[in-house]
């Protein structure tokens, strides 16, 4: 595991965007795994800037998002689909057919999950996966559990996560309690992973990810077993390392 400790959120975002941009420059048809939440917003902003500068071209890029809330339509402003359009896709030349985000409204969730895995495989697997981390150590929406859930699946969100994500909703009651998420195996199959974290609130999760026991009770700890992971963490998130 490589650990880049940077000064602040801005530097974290710039470094992460540069890694994603290099990936696209070196392989124009890269398959990129994407995350949502507050953490990668600065990275998306920087990627849009690099695109506007003419430094990167998304024509051949394919993307797969980690997760989506169950029961939210893509037009719902709280959906991760909406988030991705707002923060990245509406501002770059990615082809709509190359964007993949789990459908939270799918009639059969089981089929949706199988299909998602199949599409990732068909695309040749994920070249670079971007991850954020929950305060409880979740990656994607893989919550602390007694076992590592392998593939894309339906997740019941932890009270902790519901509380943390309620900041994006009008009230806590509006936060969906279920989500579709790539599994740990799906994430671990990515050829390269970058995990971003900023702020004191993530310090304990980062400490346990790097130095803790590998256990499904701290999902991100599994990354210790991946051959090519880079953590890009600001000083506050790295404060317990
Ligand atoms: O970046 P935030 O908003 O702290 O969220 C942490 C993680 O939780 C999620 O919102 C749930 O998957 C991720 O998108 C994110 O990486």
TrEMBL record:
Pfam families associated with the record: Glucosamine_iso (PF01182)
PROSITE patterns in the record: GLC_GALNAC_ISOMERASE
EC category: hydrolase
Reactions it catalyzes: alpha-D-glucosamine 6-phosphate + H2O = beta-D-fructose 6-phosphate + NH4(+)
Pathway in which this enzyme or protein is active: Amino-sugar metabolism; N-acetylneuraminate degradation; D-fructose 6-phosphate from N-acetylneuraminate: step 5/5
Domain Glucosamine/galactosamine-6-phosphate isomerase: 14-224
GO MF terms held by the record: glucosamine-6-phosphate deaminase activity; identical protein binding
GO cellular component: a single term: cytoplasm
Keyword annotations from UniProtKB, A to Z: Carbohydrate metabolism, Hydrolase
Enzyme Commission number, as recorded: 3.5.99.6
Domain of life: Bacteria
GO BP terms: carbohydrate metabolic process; glucosamine catabolic process; N-acetylglucosamine catabolic process; N-acetylneuraminate catabolic process
Residues annotated as the enzyme's active site: 67 (proton acceptor), 136 (for ring-opening step), 138 (proton acceptor), 143 (for ring-opening step)
Family: Belongs to the glucosamine/galactosamine-6-phosphate isomerase family. NagB subfamily.
Function: Catalyzes the reversible isomerization-deamination of glucosamine 6-phosphate (GlcN6P) to form fructose 6-phosphate (Fru6P) and ammonium ion.
Protein's name according to its UniProt entry: Glucosamine-6-phosphate deaminase
Gene: nagB
